Amino acid sequence: MIHQLSGGAWGVVIRRPIGAASRVMPVMTLLFLPIVLGMGRLYIWTHADVVAQDEVLQHKALYLNTPFFLVRAAVYFLIWNGVSYLLNAWSLEQDRTGDPRMARKMQLLSGGGLVAYGLTITFASFDWLMSIEPHWFSTIYGVLIIGGQGLIAMAFLISVLVWLSRRPPLDRIVAASHFHDLGNLLLAFVMLWAYFAFSQYLIIWAGNLPQEISWYLHRTETSWRFVGIGLVLFHFAVPFVLLLSRAIKRQAEGIIKVAILILIVRLVDLWWLIAPDFHRQGISVSWLDVLLPLSMGSFWLGCFILELRGRAILPIYDPEFDEALGEIIERGGERPGTAH
Question: pTM here?
């Protein structure tokens, strides 16, 4: 949706991977069912006896209750699946007919779709993550999650593009300038995530209110603080310094290493957001903490590859397609590994 509205050659070479990833959304909808079945283990506000003895939960019961939780989740998935379906359907129609009206339709949908995305992700983050600790709240939490989603998406797309750029036909299309543009976007998301994360910490530290600082106390006064320090270093400092280098951003071998690092630390960040609420005395690692991300990630990746193979790898009727090819011509066909 961002590319539909902003344009630019940077989005043409990753448009097919983006579409393939979005078409896995129905699978993710089904994978929400274990959360529904395990709500009693995840959320204390689902227990009537706990709510009856907690004044704060009683005040939040109008929002934090099981029926309304499920209704909201259904609305989120309906919107996400609906927008994804329409964008992919119109993109396919554009491939078949070359109808320029398809581009305008996708732009119009993307305008409203981004607003809907921002609202639904914000409330979904409140429901699924923040309500694990229902006494704690942060108004910036939603945009923190959005920033993290943009970061991991860009890192994943760069990794996929490096893989595709070594195979025809993209081995003759993808240029160093494409990686440079995507590397700049990756750097922007690194800084955006760091800004949101630090802003949340600074506001809560300055306020110094008991109901707010408790969330950070679980993470800074126990062994979880070492994970937090690691995130500061490898989620921000190291990628930030590396992505300042023009040479690294223009070389496939360099930028994919940064992208893989970000993919790994994004998982660690999600673990740090969730696990301390269940293990407040310190770091606790279960075999499921490793098995579930690996198994579900492999399953998702398999679905993604099947979807990626189902369509042409380049959107030749994209309004920015000529610009994407033009960059290669203007730069004399400079390849991603020959930056100078």
Answer: 0.91
